[in-house]
Fold HECT domain-containing protein.
Amino acid sequence: MVAGIENRLFEGDGEKGKVPKYSLNDLDNEMFRVAGEIFSVSIAQGGPAPQFMQEWCYKYLVTGKLQTDGFFDTELSPLLKEIEDATDLSPYIQQILDCGYTGPIDIEQKDGILRAVALHATTKRTPMLQQLREGLEVYNMAQVMKDKPDECRSLFVIGNDGKVDSQYIMSHLAPEMSPHGSSKRLKETRILDFFQDFLYELEDSQPQAEVLTVSTVMQWMTGQSHKHLLESERQTFKIKLRFDHNCLDHSPGHTVCFPIVSACTNTVTLPTVHLQDYESFKTNMKTAVKYGASFDRV
């Protein structure tokens, strides 16, 4: 839901942060208010959080006051750079006027022109931010942000990545292992190595549409694809990993079965008989994750 709102109502550079789209239709339909309400509910329920905004947007949401420091606009930021480096402003007269600047256009007034362009880029989005701010009043989130601005910053500003990586999953695994020295223990250790290699391979693969990711695996196992927002939750979070060595006894004659996931209890049971080598493990896992997202067994 949060990712959908990001794509629908925000625009900008994925690395420098995003800003609300200048969309009067969405403003008129109070879509930004709805977005704020959804953000509040999502954060209150453990995430994901909208960690994609620029710093100045967050400061406005907290204080209601406009600041232009640190803003980036895909259209106007290049213009600002060109004006800043220019020795002759005549090629930019129309663009400067379109930004609402009405003073003399010459090199001596460059600082004022730069401020006007920056204000134009930010002020036209303040109605969207104000509506978003009103939506954040759900669960009293706006007041919490005002009282704890530094603590809440990581929930909104780009650079505080909540994306799950292989280290996050592996560090929270709690495998239920057989006794040391047993043949079962050796199989279980080998499967754990397979799982780690599988996550590393997904992490190193080039991002493509509809390709399995580490976040997808996390969601398959636990029901959520993001890191936990609270440090206390991260400390207590565990993924129980169990090993089924007797699936042939349960279902004699079958040729393959897949991991069983209980996302409500963060428990995954792996059928060791069908995971003898890495290629078998990878094929089995990819099939399970792809077709086992619903509340049933593959």
Observations:
- The radius of gyration is 26 Å.
- Residues 217 and 253 are 29 Å apart (CA to CA).
- Residues 1-161 form one domain.
